[in-house]
Every structure is written in C-alpha cells, then in structure tokens.
From TrEMBL, chain A:
Annotated Pfam families: ABC_tran
Keywords: ATP-binding, Cell membrane, Membrane, Nucleotide-binding, Translocase, Transport
InterPro entries cross-referenced by the UniProt entry: AAA+_ATPase, ABC_transporter-like_ATP-bd, ABC_transporter-like_CS, ABC_transpr_CbiO/EcfA_su, ECF_ABC_transporter_ATP-bd, EcfA_1, P-loop_NTPase
Family from the record: Belongs to the ABC transporter superfamily.
GO cellular component, one term: ATP-binding cassette (ABC) transporter complex
Highest taxon of source: Bacteria
Record membrane topology: Peripheral membrane protein
MF GO annotations: ATP binding; ATP hydrolysis activity; ATPase-coupled transmembrane transporter activity
Domain ABC transporter: 4-247
Keyword RNA-binding: no
Origin species: Mobilitalea sibirica
The keyword Cell membrane is annotated on this UniProt entry: yes
Protein name: Energy-coupling factor transporter ATPase
Location of the protein in the cell: Cell membrane
TrEMBL record, chain B:
Entry keyword Amino-acid biosynthesis: no
Family, as annotated: Belongs to the ABC transporter superfamily. Energy-coupling factor EcfA family.
Membrane topology: Peripheral membrane protein
Enzyme class: translocase
Source organism (scientific name): Mobilitalea sibirica
EC number: 7.-.-.-
Protein name in the entry: Energy-coupling factor transporter ATP-binding protein EcfA2
Length: 284, 282
C-alpha cells in the first residue's frame, strides 16, 4: 500500500505583473511519478532549483498540482475536504529550527500541535512525553528551547510533528544549518522513528552521507526524476550523480578514484567498513 | 601581523541573570595573506569571535590590533576598519535589497564616498571576481539561483576592497556543485589578490580541502590553532567537542589498524588515493 503516490505531477510558478498579466511561467516540476510505500525511508537529492522542495510542499497540500495527481494515504490533495486529514497524515520539518519553535518551554512547544487538533489534555501530555522520548529529548522537557543546540532544537521540532501522530514525515533539508554532531543527532533520530515507530520518511538533503541509510534514493534535476534506486545503485554511478551538481560520499569517491587507477574494487562502496574489507581482500 | 587578539574576553548581558562568558582569554595572530579555517560546534563562540574582528562587538577586556593599531583607541576610526575587514554573514543573500544585481553590489562602494566612476569600476571587478557574468547585471537579484544570490552578496563586500574577508558559513544550504563553485572562487581570489581569508564552517571536508591553518573554538576558548593536518590528526579530541575529521581521515586510520602501512594525517581524497596506491604497489 502506498503512503504517497504522485502521478504525472507538474507544477508551474506563474508570475504576474501589477495588472495581473502573466509575466513568466516557470515549470518547477514536470512529469514526476513517484510511489512511496508505507514504512519506507526515501531520500530525495537534487541541486538548488531542481524542484525537490516544490515536490515536498505538494505532499501536505501547501501547493496543489498544476497537472497530475498527488495522493497521500489514498487521499487526493486537490480535494479541499481532505486538507486537514492530509496535514495530519504528513508532517513537515523545515531547514531552520528557529522558525519552527514557538513556545518558551520545550514540552509546551511539542504540545502545541495536538492541542490545536482538539485532543483532550490528558492525551496531549501522554503524546508529548512519548514524542520527546522518541527523539531523545525527554530530559529537556521543562527547558527553554532557546538554550538548546541546533540539533536539539531540530529534534524538538520533530517531536512537535510526532505528537500529531503523522503516518509520514517530510523533512526538507533538516540538517543544513547544523554542526556535524547536530546532523548526526537528527539523522539517527529520523532513522529510529522510521525503524521503531514505522513512520514513513521522505528526507530531502544536500548531504550525501545522510542518504546512505535510505531504502531508496530519488534524484531530481530540472523538475524531473532522473535517477531512482538503492543508495548503492545510485552511488555506483559517480559521474552521472556529479553531472546533476551533486556529489558522492568521500569513501565512495575514493574507491571510485582507485578503481580508475586500476584497482579492482566493488562498485558503490558506502561505508568505511566496506572500504577496509574490500581493500583487505584485494591485498591478500 | 595583520590582526592581533590580546587576551580578549567577552561577556554577554554582564551583571544580569543571563550573564554568559562567550569568549574567554583569546590570544590570536592572523598574518597578511593567510587562508584560515575557523571551526567549532554551534554556540562555541565562532560568530562572536569574528564580530570582534571588524569592531561590531567590543571586547569586555583585552586589546585588538589591526595593522599595528589598537582598534579600541579613542582616535581609531572604526568606520575605516569596517571597510578593511569585510564580514559576510550567514545567508548573506537575505540582505540583498536593490532592484538590480549591479546596483546592489554598487551600494557599498558608493557609500564609501568614492566618486561614481571608481565605485562602478569596483563593482565591475567584484562581480567578475565572483563569476557573475554581465548578462545578469541588470537582473533583479531575487531572480537568481541560491548560489548566484550568495555570490552577488559576497561581491557586495568585495567591492569595498577589504584587506581581510571573513565568511560565516558561505556554503550552508547550497548544493554540492554550488558549494564547490563558491569555495573554488574564494580560493582563486585568495591566490590572485593575496587577501587574508577567514572561513567559518561546519564542513570539515571544506576546510580540509582549502585552508592551511585551523582555529578550533570550544565553549568560548580557542583550544587548537595548528596546521590543518595536525588538527585533524587529533580527531578524537575533535569528537569530544562535537566536531569530526573528514571521512578520509577515518578511512586511513581504519586501514592503519588493519595493518596497512599508510600515513594517517590525510585529509583529502586525492592524498588518500596516492597513499593507498603507494602502499599497494610495494
């Protein structure tokens, strides 16, 4: 069963002058078809302006398709009566944690979402506790968010989404503003939610080392889906990935360079351990 | 000795309940023409430190010398310092405001009181330095891509002809190619103009590829000030400070543990490749 189904999606940003005449049309997404199954962890890569954020905004009905259809858990996003159900099904986490936190105490911030859903307060507190536990921030529940590190703030933002019990979370470059440790915290939190809570994850990122854990990677370029596959399949095609203004993890790049220099290493090495094993086999 | 920090301390909200000692006893010398990296986790004091360099923040105690002069001297012209030490903030494209790319970059030099021609010449040069072609000069800065916008914003600082350029996270949010383009441009600028450059970043790979010397801030103190290779060879200490070494450094250490005779002070993919080939051909 698909959590997200996107069929022949096209989206146009239309710019108008003061009189309402069309000045320019920018087709940000063109003919995109994607299926994301329940419980999947899917990563989307793509250069700035490739359409990945525009795609993400279709999944919780911030944007509506110009052409094509987007279904979230079977609901057509174009149908207004589905709006609140869709927003509750697919939660979004954005780049800047400071723009997503509104309360002065961590637990109140996390409770804000479910409170707005009209949930009884006893259950709100249960959900707050469970969400904070899931992101490993329970001990900070009475702290002020502005004293937290970037990674911790972003985890609180994720807890705020989790408290609304979404079946799916869409993260749009959640680590772009974080230091290395903050990035690790957020990515391991997302992986745990996916594995333990069975939340479907759609992760948009520019950091290649964050997608190696995904079940599937989708590469976008100029509004189209240009590559799809497991991380191993994608990163085996180093030159093609780079042609879309992207990169591969350093370990993959090193293995690729060594292969070009004549060593016989397997394609698509993604981790230090794999690399060391491969080199060990080679030298014996 | 272009910039000297002599026992610099900075305390936020001194005397209130929110008092915080953000910068502790920093001694630091930056030489003319250096390309220095500054790393540290969020909240380690990096941004506070660089804001001292052009006088945006005044130290609670200590002295800062720029080209030999104490910037806290009564007669010192801070305005001049600010045109000589250019600071590019995070997400500088948020500060673009003019109706065309050219006008935006021209705004700084025009305000320095230069004559029109000189200001325009500087604008041309700055736009050329960051690789923004003439076809974009009349465009609205808001129509450009993320990477282009950022380069225009950097050009706005370059047009002031600073002697020192400080960049706070210049690649955050850019795609890998955009990141490489900007860093490459900065590196060329450094080589060709001899400008002193200080690069603040969260990307260990970026500093490893470009800078010769790294400053590491932790909890307000300057805890390391060493050549790039030395800093990354101390990766275990870096991890304690919520930082890391580039992935290749970890690869080389793992290989060494497996009995390969390879150097571990390696920080770039190319160095790693040469070292491994050397070892395997023995």
């Amino acid at each position: 069963m698909e959590m997200i189904k996107v069929e022949d999606l096209a989206f146009e940003y239309i710019r108008r002058d003061e009189d309402g005449n069309v000045e320019s049309i920018n087709r940000a997404i063109d003919g995109v078809t994607i299926d994301v199954k329940k419980g999947d962890f899917v990563a989307i890569l793509g250069a700035n302006g490739s359409g990945k954020s525009t795609l993400a905004k279709h999944i919780n009905a911030i944007l509506y398709p110009t052409e094509g259809i987007v279904w979230v858990n079977g609901m057509d996003t174009k149908d207004d009566k589905n709006l609140w159900d869709i927003r509750q099904t697919a939660g979004m986490v954005f780049q800047n944690p400071d723009n997503q936190i509104i309360a002065t105490v961590v637990e109140e911030d996390v409770g804000f979402g479910p409170e707005n859903l009209g949930i009884p307060s006893k259950e709100i507190w249960e959900r707050v506790e469970k969400s904070l536990e899931a992101v490993g921030m329970l001990e900070y529940r009475t702290h002020s968010p502005n004293k937290l590190s970037g990674g911790q703030k972003q985890r609180v933002a994720i807890a705020g989404i989790m408290a609304m019990k979404p079946a799916c979370i869409v993260l749009d470059e959640p680590t772009a503003m974080l230091d290395p440790d903050g990035r690790k915290e957020v990515i391991s939190t997302v992986r745990t939610l996916n594995k333990k809570e069975k939340v479907t994850v759609l992760l948009i990122t520019h950091h290649m080392d964050e997608v190696i854990y995904a079940d599937r990677v989708i590469v976008m370029n100029e509004g189209h889906v240009v590559m799809q596959g497991t991380p191993k399949e994608i990163f085996s095609r180093v030159d093609e990935v780079k042609s879309y203004r992207l990169d591969v993890p350093q370990v993959t790049e090193l293995a690729y360079e060594l292969t070009k220099a004549g060593l016989n290493l397997p394609e698509g090495i993604l981790s230090v351990e794999e690399f060391v094993t491969a080199l060990n086999q080679l030298s014996r | 000795m272009q910039i000297i920090f002599d026992k610099i301390n900075y305390v936020y909200s001194s005397g209130t309940a929110f008092e915080r000692h953000a910068i502790k006893d920093i001694n630091l010398t930056i030489h003319k023409g250096e390309f220095v990296g500054l790393i540290g986790h969020t909240g380690s004091g990096k941004s506070t430190l660089i804001q001292h360099m052009n006088g945006l923040i005044k130290a609670t105690s200590g002295h800062i010398y720029f080209n030999g002069l104490d910037i806290y001297d009564q007669d010192y012209k801070l305005r001049e310092l600010r045109s000589k030490v250019g600071l590019v903030f995070q997400y500088p494209e948020h500060q673009l405001f003019e109706t065309s790319v050219f006008k935006d970059v021209n705004y700084g030099p025009k305000n320095l009181g230069l004559d029109k021609l000189e200001a325009e010449v500087r604008t041309y040069e700055a736009l050329k330095m960051v690789g923004i072609g003439e076809e974009l000069w009349d465009a609205s800065p808001f129509e450009l891509s993320g990477g282009q916008k950022r380069r225009v914003a950097i050009a706005g600082i370059l047009a002031m002809k600073p002697e020192v350029l400080i960049l706070d996270e210049p690649t955050a949010g850019l795609d890998p190619r955009g990141r490489d383009d900007i860093l490459e441009q900065i590196s060329v600028l450094h080589k060709e103009s001899g400008m002193t450059i200080i690069l603040v970043t969260h990307s260990m790979e970026d500093v490893a590829n470009y800078v010769d010397r790294i400053l590491v801030m932790n909890q307000g103190s300057l805890v390391m000030d060493e050549p790039t290779k030395t800093v990354f060879s101390r990766y275990k200490e870096l991890e304690q400070m919520h930082l890391a070494a580039p992935q290749v450094t970890y690869i080389m250490n793992a290989l060494k543990q497996e009995g390969f005779h390879v150097a571990t002070d390696i920080t770039t993919v190319n160095e790693a490749k040469l070292e491994i080939l050397k070892e395997l051909k023995k």
